[in-house]
Amino acid sequence: MNKLLNRVPEVTLFFWLIKIMATTVGETAADFLSATLNLGLGMTSYIMGGLLVVALLIQFKLKRYVPSSYWLVVVLVSIVGTLITDRLVDEAGVSLVTTSIIFGAALIATFALWYASEKTLSIHSIYTAKRELFYWAAILFTFALGTAAGDLFAEGMHLGYAPSALIFGGAIAAITFARYVFKLNAVLAFWLAYILTRPLGASMGDLLSQPVTNSGIGLGTVGTSAIFMAVIMSLVSYISLQRKRQLLPASTTK
């Protein structure tokens, strides 16, 4: 299948950089909207959920990978995933352990249904609406699970933000080592790393945004979100230009 027909990007260094920063923005932006702007978790969830639905409709209508559309959906899914977990924990009183188990089970069920239907979990074959639907469902649950797991390690287990980030970063490094040295299955390695980037990003977001009295660096949610969004937009703009250059030969030969 021509890679230009795939609806998601190739897995490159830029992919992982933007993904980690998007997860950080998901953590800090959710806190900024709900706490700093005093919108509350409920109102913030409705607003961001509505924006996510609109972004997904545009994404599905495109039927191909467009960097700006794709990464906008990722950022919005990151924020919504964070809000879902926060509402369950803060409003419904569900423990972080239970929340992690719930979203872990939901993610496994999504993968099981996806594989049963399509016989593959590879992101290099997302060229139908059905597969893309499974893909975004899995992404949403990885964000919700990662938020719960990140908070569980950093706050529930009182490890702190920096140690938690080191733990999750070390786990991703171990998976990378296993992939290239011990030839760990590529699809399994991808999804394991993808899941772990969420708690890594959440821990980094809290480390950067939280005040020094809470073991953070004190940049605040506004500063942290602004910095990471600026970098994300710069990288996505660069990738978009590269994408146009890839498509140019195909269009000029018609």
TrEMBL record:
Coiled coil: none annotated. Keywords: Membrane, Transmembrane, Transmembrane helix. The chain crosses the membrane at residues 32-58, 70-89, 95-114, 134-154, 160-181, 188-205, 217-241. It comes from the Bacteria. InterPro entries: DUF347 (IPR007136). The keyword Transmembrane helix applies. It holds the Pfam family DUF347. This is Membrane protein. The lineage of its organism: Bacteria, Pseudomonadati, Pseudomonadota, Betaproteobacteria, Nitrosomonadales.
